Amino acid sequence: MNLSLSLFPLGWQHYLLGGLIIGLGTSLLFVLTGRIGGMSTVFSSTWSFVVRRPFFQQARFVESRGWRLVYAAGLILGALVWWLGFAGGKPEATAVPVWQLLVGGFFVGYGARLGNGCTSGHGICGLGSLQLPSLMAVLTFMATAFLTANLAARWLA
Amino acid sequence: MSAARGLATLAAGVLFGFGLSYSTMIRPEVVLSFLRFEDFGLMLVMGGAVVVVALVYKLAPRLLARPLLGDHFHAHPSAWNRDTAVGAALFGVGWGLCGVCPGPAIAGLGAGNWDLLWALAGIALGALVQGLRAK
Q: Does the beta-carbon distance from B54 to A128 stay under 8 Å?
């Protein structure tokens, strides 16, 4: 009990159950459509609607941009169901400063697209397909994220 | 995209977004508390998801000739090279700074977290610059 409290001060059940549900969503996509449901590609494929450069006009973006937006809409809808049905509809907010969200977001977008995956693409789909390169990617971003978050807590707080 | 495939994709997204919210991964504070070793919940979220996905990715192609609404099972192509290494490292720096990754940046909007629009804008901009610099 003490160990559980020190590792998971807010409880652990909702983490595990939420993770299983995320896994079910990714699995449903695969069983029904055969698609791999990482989330970061939508940020490149959606630009293909407006940016004419050859990079964004690659078949892998143009051909998947429709379903990726539908999948993203599903994410919003799923969060809405949770928010209204389970969380009382009180708007979520964050105390993380705007510049950190914006600058951090920039590196998240740039890095995920350069490295071809994020926490869901490498973390869930890549590890789920037992890919060693994805494991290396996860260990790499975990390491730099641990370092950044701890330094930020010390210097920026 | 047929209506059935569209609906299946939407339903899968709904489960994903619900799971992200239910596990409170749409709260940057919770993600940052993991990255500062104060709460290890994120390991359960990722671990739970990976176990389910690993089973299904392994079993579905053995039990089914093709996806129920599609023509073939895709694979997650990943390679370990300079781009993957540098990209993952930069992703981690950004993630450690803001506590938001692509899924929660999108899902958070459904829970009225408008602050996450800043992270969403940052991610979209980062993806744009990456594409413009590529090749």
A: yes
- What is the ipTM, given to two decimal places? 0.96
Tell me, what DSSP letter sits at residue A131?
Answer: -
CA-CA-CA-CA torsion sign (B83, A47, B128, A142): negative
Window A:30-69, CB contacts with B under 8 Å = 30-40, 42-44, 46-47, 51, 53-56, 66-67
Residues A40/A63, Cβ–Cβ less than 8 Å? no
Is B14–A146 a contact, with Cβ atoms under 8 angstroms apart?
no
Q: Which chain B residues are within 8 Å of A16, Cβ to Cβ?
A: 44-45, 48
| Sequential DSSP letters for B28-51 | HHHHHHHHTTS-THHHHHHHHHHH
Structure tokens at B97: 């700074």
**Location of structure tokens 């791999």:** A36
Mean pLDDT, contiguous 10-residue spans, chain B (135 residues): 91 98 97 96 97 97 96 90 97 98 96 96 98 91
Digit-coded pLDDT (tens) for A46-92: 999 999 999 999 999 999 999 999 999 999 999 999 999 999 888 88
Could you give the CA distance from residue B105 to residue B9 in angstroms, rounded to a whole number? 19
Task: Tell me how close the Cα of A19 comes to any Cα of chain B, in angstroms.
Answer: 4
Q: Around A104, how many Cα atoms within 13 Å sit in the side-chain half-sphere?
A: 29
Nearest by CB to residue B90, choosing from A80, A114, A130, is: A114
Q: What share of chain B is helix, strand, coil (3-state, %, to 5)?
A: 70, 0, 30
The reply to whether the predicted model has a pTM over 0.90 is: yes
